[in-house]
């Protein structure tokens, strides 16, 4: 039922919002009176819509069912639309306003798309932008670390939490006396993804984990083992293997980021210029 409800809204989306350029060989999947549903419209939803992609990720076999549902819903909508026209509903003032707004949205999107596609960026512009904003393009500081997790429900009672905390402190004491962190991780850790690797979590960069947790991790010295740290998963003992300092990205490493940032700035500047010119031409009024 949830999927059918979602697909129903997707039909509205591609009828009102998605714009597809049809070639001479465009395949018609369905036809109702003057309305035609083209394969490109359905394929665009199947291949690009995040909600559909989420469904297909967990249930790839659902693709044909979703496609059929889209077509069926489109036919239903088209039949209702024809019936509405036959009864003159399209001539009602409130419906006319809605149709004007839909037309305006589609035209505005196409106009803006055409203008933005005209933006060109040269290699020289990219290099100049990179030089002026080098401080933006930095690989953040990182740490390579291992952990031992003693799991504990987030809503655990104090007695249970104290018991797990005591175990964590006992394990830490063994490490401080010379026991190998990696062996104790294999024995005691409740993290199935890392315990077989001696607790290794690999490299974590600044900004990739909870800020409060991050502050504690990055305050540790290489080889140092933290006191037990509580999270939603339980208590952690963290060992920092090494610290990786922040480093500036070269132009080639940052090129894609530079292009995205410069394009965004150019788009914003173009939008501002367009709105100023169009406002002078059409003199909008607010009452």
UniProtKB/TrEMBL annotation:
InterPro entries linked: PPIase_dom_sf, PPIase_PpiC, PPIase_PpiC_CS, PrsA_foldase, Trigger_fact/SurA_dom_sf
Listed GO MF terms: peptidyl-prolyl cis-trans isomerase activity
Coiled coil start-end: none
Keyword Isomerase part of the UniProt annotation: yes
Top-level taxonomic group: Bacteria
Annotated PpiC domain residues: 140-242
Keywords on record: Isomerase, Rotamase
Protein name: PpiC domain-containing protein
